[in-house]
Amino acid sequence: MKYRKILAANLRSLLKLNDISSQKQLADVTGVSQTQIGNILHCKKAASIDLLNRLSNGLNCEPWLFLVPVNLFEELRQDDFLPLVHCYSKLPPHDQNAVWDITYELFEATNGVYLPQADISERF
């Protein structure tokens, strides 16, 4: 249930970021039914990877953004976080990977968690 709540909260944030104000609008953009969208927003059903992919394609973001716990960004207000996600989602894939690599290295250094070099490519 925890990740259903995270998914619902992040979906609402991405709807706001993309100026989508209704489930119908989201359904039109993503090809996901309004029923499925409602079930996700009300934490009634789990979302498949394929469904997350369809949502992410329609909302111009990476599928993993739906599952990032908001409390990881508690230093940022939601209004600060949304432009970051928006900017990140507009980057070409190789630049997104570079941003992710730098972010991960900062996380490792801050938390004293280091993966062996061989495991770095497997962290995703």
| Secondary structure tally, helices | 7
Which outline best applies?
globular
Largest sheet: none
Mean pLDDT: 79
Distance between the termini: 23 Å
The CATH architecture designation of the domain at 2-73 is: Orthogonal Bundle
CATH class of the domain at 2-73: Mainly Alpha
In percent, how helical is the residue content? 55-70%
Q: Structural class of the secondary elements?
A: mainly alpha
Strand tally: 0
The CATH topology name of the domain at 2-73 reads 434 Repressor (Amino-terminal Domain)
Give the full name of the CATH homologous superfamily of the domain at 2-73: lambda repressor-like DNA-binding domains
General description of the model:
The chain has 124 residues and is an all-alpha fold. Residues 71-76 and 117-124 have low confidence and may be disordered. It has helices spanning 2-17, 23-30, 34-41, 49-59, 78-90, 93-111, 117-120. It is 64% helix and 0% strand. The protein has a domain at 2-73: 434 Repressor (Amino-terminal Domain) (Orthogonal Bundle), CATH 1.10.260.
Provide a brief overview of the structure.
With 124 residues, the chain is mainly alpha-helical. The protein has 7 helices and no strands. The C terminus is likely disordered.
For the structure shown, list the relevant keywords.
disordered C terminus, globular, 124 residues
Strand and helix map with partners:
Layout: H1 2-17, H2 23-30, H3 34-41, H4 49-59, H5 78-90, H6 93-111, H7 117-120
